[in-house]
Design a protein that fits this description.
This protein has helices spanning 3-11, 24-33, 51-57, 69-78, 111-115, 131-144, 172-179, 198-202, and strands spanning 40-43, 61-66, 84-88, 91-96, 99-103, 119-123, 150-157, 183-192, 209-217. With 225 residues, it is α/β, with parallel strands linked by helices. The chain has a single domain (3-14, 22-217), classed as 3-Layer(aba) Sandwich (Rossmann fold), CATH 3.40.50.150. A nine-stranded mixed β-sheet has the order 3-4-5-2-1-6-7-9-8, with helices on both faces. Strand 1, helix 3 (51-57) and strand 2 (61-66) form a beta-alpha-beta unit. Bound molecules: S-adenosylmethionine (SAM).
Amino acid sequence: MEHDFWHARWTHDEIGFHQPDGNPLLAAHWDAVGAPDGAQVLVPLCGKTPDMAWLAARGHRVVGVELSDKAARAFFDEQGMHAERVRRDGFDVYSAAGVAIWVGDFFQMPAAVFDECAALYDRAALIALPPDMRRRYAATLCERLPAGCRGLLIAIAYDQSEMAGPPFSVPEDEVRALLEPAFTVSPLAAHDALADNERFRQKGLSALREAAWRLEHGGGSLPVR
Ligand SMILES: C[S@@+](CC[C@H](N)C(=O)[O-])C[C@H]1O[C@@H](n2cnc3c(N)ncnc32)[C@H](O)[C@@H]1O
Protein backbone atom coordinates (compact mmCIF):
# COMPACT_ATOMS: atom_id res chain seq x y z
CA MET A 1 0.00 0.00 0.00
CA GLU A 2 1.20 3.48 -0.76
CA HIS A 3 1.90 5.92 2.05
CA ASP A 4 -0.96 8.19 0.94
CA PHE A 5 -3.44 5.36 1.48
CA TRP A 6 -2.48 5.09 5.15
CA HIS A 7 -2.21 8.82 5.73
CA ALA A 8 -5.76 9.19 4.35
CA ARG A 9 -6.99 6.43 6.67
CA TRP A 10 -5.59 8.26 9.68
CA THR A 11 -6.73 11.71 8.49
CA HIS A 12 -10.31 10.47 8.11
CA ASP A 13 -10.22 8.27 11.23
CA GLU A 14 -10.89 5.17 9.13
CA ILE A 15 -9.02 2.96 11.55
CA GLY A 16 -11.25 -0.07 11.97
CA PHE A 17 -8.06 -2.10 12.58
CA HIS A 18 -7.42 -0.28 15.87
CA GLN A 19 -8.28 -2.25 19.02
CA PRO A 20 -8.72 0.22 21.89
CA ASP A 21 -8.29 -2.55 24.46
CA GLY A 22 -5.38 -4.21 22.67
CA ASN A 23 -5.24 -7.69 21.20
CA PRO A 24 -6.11 -10.47 23.69
CA LEU A 25 -3.66 -12.87 22.03
CA LEU A 26 -0.75 -10.73 23.25
CA ALA A 27 -1.53 -11.20 26.94
CA ALA A 28 -2.43 -14.85 26.34
CA HIS A 29 0.75 -15.81 24.50
CA TRP A 30 3.55 -13.35 25.22
CA ASP A 31 5.04 -15.55 27.95
CA ALA A 32 5.28 -18.43 25.46
CA VAL A 33 7.42 -16.25 23.21
CA GLY A 34 10.17 -16.33 25.82
CA ALA A 35 11.47 -12.82 25.21
CA PRO A 36 14.31 -12.00 27.61
CA ASP A 37 13.46 -9.71 30.53
CA GLY A 38 13.89 -6.10 29.51
CA ALA A 39 14.33 -7.02 25.84
CA GLN A 40 13.81 -4.28 23.30
CA VAL A 41 10.69 -5.18 21.30
CA LEU A 42 10.25 -4.04 17.71
CA VAL A 43 6.61 -3.24 16.86
CA PRO A 44 6.50 -2.61 13.11
CA LEU A 45 3.57 -0.64 11.62
CA CYS A 46 2.44 0.02 15.17
CA GLY A 47 -0.43 2.47 14.72
CA LYS A 48 -1.46 3.62 18.18
CA THR A 49 -1.97 0.18 19.66
CA PRO A 50 -2.12 0.08 23.47
CA ASP A 51 -0.25 -3.22 23.16
CA MET A 52 2.90 -1.08 23.22
CA ALA A 53 1.99 0.22 26.68
CA TRP A 54 1.27 -3.35 27.78
CA LEU A 55 4.72 -4.48 26.67
CA ALA A 56 6.37 -1.49 28.37
CA ALA A 57 4.48 -2.27 31.59
CA ARG A 58 6.02 -5.76 31.39
CA GLY A 59 9.45 -4.15 31.54
CA HIS A 60 10.26 -4.11 27.84
CA ARG A 61 11.67 -1.21 25.90
CA VAL A 62 9.38 -0.79 22.89
CA VAL A 63 10.36 0.53 19.49
CA GLY A 64 7.32 1.20 17.31
CA VAL A 65 7.54 2.26 13.67
CA GLU A 66 4.63 4.09 12.12
CA LEU A 67 4.08 6.24 9.03
CA SER A 68 1.49 8.47 10.66
CA ASP A 69 2.58 11.29 12.94
CA LYS A 70 -1.06 11.60 14.01
CA ALA A 71 -1.08 7.98 15.17
CA ALA A 72 2.15 8.36 17.13
CA ARG A 73 0.96 11.48 18.93
CA ALA A 74 -2.43 9.87 19.61
CA PHE A 75 -0.74 6.89 21.25
CA PHE A 76 1.01 9.05 23.82
CA ASP A 77 -2.04 11.29 24.37
CA GLU A 78 -4.32 8.30 24.92
CA GLN A 79 -1.84 6.70 27.32
CA GLY A 80 -1.57 9.96 29.27
CA MET A 81 2.14 10.24 28.53
CA HIS A 82 4.05 13.37 27.61
CA ALA A 83 6.44 12.37 24.83
CA GLU A 84 9.75 14.00 23.99
CA ARG A 85 10.44 14.37 20.26
CA VAL A 86 13.89 14.17 18.69
CA ARG A 87 15.08 13.88 15.10
CA ARG A 88 17.10 10.71 14.31
CA ASP A 89 18.21 9.37 10.94
CA GLY A 90 15.44 11.22 9.10
CA PHE A 91 12.69 10.13 11.51
CA ASP A 92 10.82 12.04 14.21
CA VAL A 93 11.14 9.83 17.27
CA TYR A 94 8.64 10.31 20.09
CA SER A 95 9.42 8.66 23.38
CA ALA A 96 8.10 8.33 26.91
CA ALA A 97 7.88 5.67 29.60
CA GLY A 98 9.76 2.95 27.75
CA VAL A 99 8.04 3.42 24.39
CA ALA A 100 9.69 5.09 21.39
CA ILE A 101 7.76 5.53 18.14
CA TRP A 102 9.77 6.24 15.02
CA VAL A 103 7.59 8.15 12.57
CA GLY A 104 8.39 7.23 8.99
CA ASP A 105 8.73 4.33 6.59
CA PHE A 106 9.56 0.95 8.13
CA PHE A 107 11.69 0.15 5.08
CA GLN A 108 13.92 3.15 5.82
CA MET A 109 14.63 2.24 9.44
CA PRO A 110 18.33 2.21 10.27
CA ALA A 111 19.76 -1.31 10.54
CA ALA A 112 21.20 -0.47 13.97
CA VAL A 113 17.70 -0.29 15.46
CA PHE A 114 16.97 -3.87 14.39
CA ASP A 115 20.29 -5.04 15.86
CA GLU A 116 19.16 -3.99 19.33
CA CYS A 117 15.77 -5.75 19.21
CA ALA A 118 15.70 -9.14 20.92
CA ALA A 119 11.96 -9.42 20.39
CA LEU A 120 9.26 -8.65 17.83
CA TYR A 121 5.51 -8.08 18.04
CA ASP A 122 3.57 -8.06 14.79
CA ARG A 123 -0.18 -7.64 14.94
CA ALA A 124 -1.70 -6.37 11.69
CA ALA A 125 1.65 -5.41 10.17
CA LEU A 126 2.39 -8.34 7.83
CA ILE A 127 -1.30 -8.60 6.93
CA ALA A 128 -1.50 -4.86 6.19
CA LEU A 129 0.78 -5.24 3.19
CA PRO A 130 0.11 -6.50 -0.36
CA PRO A 131 2.09 -9.56 -1.57
CA ASP A 132 5.18 -7.83 -2.96
CA MET A 133 5.54 -5.65 0.13
CA ARG A 134 4.96 -8.66 2.39
CA ARG A 135 7.94 -10.38 0.81
CA ARG A 136 10.10 -7.30 1.32
CA TYR A 137 8.84 -6.82 4.87
CA ALA A 138 9.51 -10.44 5.82
CA ALA A 139 12.92 -10.41 4.16
CA THR A 140 13.78 -7.28 6.17
CA LEU A 141 12.88 -9.04 9.43
CA CYS A 142 14.81 -12.15 8.39
CA GLU A 143 17.91 -10.21 7.40
CA ARG A 144 18.04 -7.46 10.00
CA LEU A 145 16.77 -8.96 13.27
CA PRO A 146 19.52 -10.68 15.23
CA ALA A 147 19.87 -14.40 15.81
CA GLY A 148 17.94 -15.43 18.91
CA CYS A 149 15.27 -12.77 18.44
CA ARG A 150 11.86 -14.06 19.58
CA GLY A 151 8.56 -12.85 18.25
CA LEU A 152 4.80 -13.06 18.35
CA LEU A 153 3.01 -12.81 15.01
CA ILE A 154 -0.78 -12.45 14.82
CA ALA A 155 -2.19 -13.00 11.35
CA ILE A 156 -5.53 -13.72 9.72
CA ALA A 157 -6.56 -16.03 6.91
CA TYR A 158 -9.66 -15.96 4.73
CA ASP A 159 -10.67 -16.53 1.12
CA GLN A 160 -8.95 -13.60 -0.60
CA SER A 161 -11.47 -13.74 -3.46
CA GLU A 162 -14.22 -12.71 -1.01
CA MET A 163 -12.65 -9.40 0.03
CA ALA A 164 -9.90 -7.10 -1.15
CA GLY A 165 -7.25 -6.26 1.44
CA PRO A 166 -6.03 -4.72 3.58
CA PRO A 167 -6.11 -6.61 5.78
CA PHE A 168 -4.81 -9.37 3.51
CA SER A 169 -5.13 -13.08 4.05
CA VAL A 170 -1.81 -14.61 5.10
CA PRO A 171 -2.36 -18.32 5.74
CA GLU A 172 0.05 -20.75 7.37
CA ASP A 173 1.83 -21.81 4.19
CA GLU A 174 2.65 -18.19 3.38
CA VAL A 175 3.73 -17.37 6.95
CA ARG A 176 6.14 -20.27 6.74
CA ALA A 177 7.36 -19.48 3.22
CA LEU A 178 8.06 -15.87 4.17
CA LEU A 179 9.68 -16.37 7.54
CA GLU A 180 11.19 -19.85 7.71
CA PRO A 181 14.31 -18.80 5.84
CA ALA A 182 15.36 -17.30 9.17
CA PHE A 183 12.80 -18.13 11.84
CA THR A 184 11.47 -21.25 13.46
CA VAL A 185 7.71 -20.76 13.17
CA SER A 186 5.52 -22.50 15.75
CA PRO A 187 1.74 -22.28 16.03
CA LEU A 188 0.45 -21.01 19.38
CA ALA A 189 -3.28 -20.66 18.79
CA ALA A 190 -5.91 -20.29 16.10
CA HIS A 191 -9.61 -19.54 16.31
CA ASP A 192 -12.59 -18.57 14.20
CA ALA A 193 -12.75 -14.78 14.29
CA LEU A 194 -15.67 -13.92 12.01
CA ALA A 195 -18.17 -13.52 14.84
CA ASP A 196 -15.95 -10.81 16.38
CA ASN A 197 -15.52 -9.00 13.07
CA GLU A 198 -18.91 -7.83 11.88
CA ARG A 199 -17.28 -5.36 9.46
CA PHE A 200 -15.65 -8.25 7.56
CA ARG A 201 -18.86 -10.27 7.48
CA GLN A 202 -20.58 -7.24 5.97
CA LYS A 203 -17.85 -7.11 3.30
CA GLY A 204 -18.72 -10.68 2.30
CA LEU A 205 -16.39 -12.95 4.24
CA SER A 206 -17.81 -16.40 4.95
CA ALA A 207 -14.96 -17.51 7.23
CA LEU A 208 -12.05 -15.88 9.04
CA ARG A 209 -9.29 -17.47 11.11
CA GLU A 210 -7.00 -15.54 13.42
CA ALA A 211 -3.77 -17.27 14.39
CA ALA A 212 -0.85 -16.55 16.68
CA TRP A 213 2.65 -17.75 15.85
CA ARG A 214 5.81 -17.95 17.90
CA LEU A 215 8.93 -16.92 15.99
CA GLU A 216 12.54 -17.61 16.88
CA HIS A 217 15.32 -16.30 14.70
CA GLY A 218 17.92 -18.96 14.04
CA GLY A 219 20.43 -16.77 12.28
CA GLY A 220 19.73 -17.51 8.62
CA SER A 221 18.23 -15.02 6.19
CA LEU A 222 17.54 -14.13 2.61
CA PRO A 223 18.85 -10.92 1.10
CA VAL A 224 16.35 -8.05 1.28
CA ARG A 225 14.85 -7.51 -2.17
C1 LIG B 1 -3.46 -2.27 9.86
S1 LIG B 1 -2.66 -0.98 10.73
C2 LIG B 1 -2.12 -1.86 12.19
C3 LIG B 1 -1.66 -0.96 13.30
C4 LIG B 1 -1.27 -1.69 14.58
N1 LIG B 1 -0.28 -2.72 14.35
C5 LIG B 1 -2.46 -2.24 15.30
O1 LIG B 1 -2.47 -3.43 15.62
O2 LIG B 1 -3.38 -1.46 15.56
C6 LIG B 1 -1.17 -0.77 9.78
C7 LIG B 1 -0.41 0.47 10.19
O3 LIG B 1 0.83 0.49 9.50
C8 LIG B 1 1.14 1.80 9.11
N2 LIG B 1 2.05 1.65 7.96
C9 LIG B 1 1.72 1.22 6.72
N3 LIG B 1 2.81 1.15 5.94
C10 LIG B 1 3.87 1.54 6.70
C11 LIG B 1 5.26 1.68 6.46
N4 LIG B 1 5.81 1.40 5.27
N5 LIG B 1 6.05 2.10 7.48
C12 LIG B 1 5.52 2.40 8.69
N6 LIG B 1 4.19 2.28 8.98
C13 LIG B 1 3.38 1.86 7.99
C14 LIG B 1 -0.21 2.44 8.83
O4 LIG B 1 -0.19 3.85 8.93
C15 LIG B 1 -1.09 1.79 9.89
O5 LIG B 1 -1.15 2.57 11.05
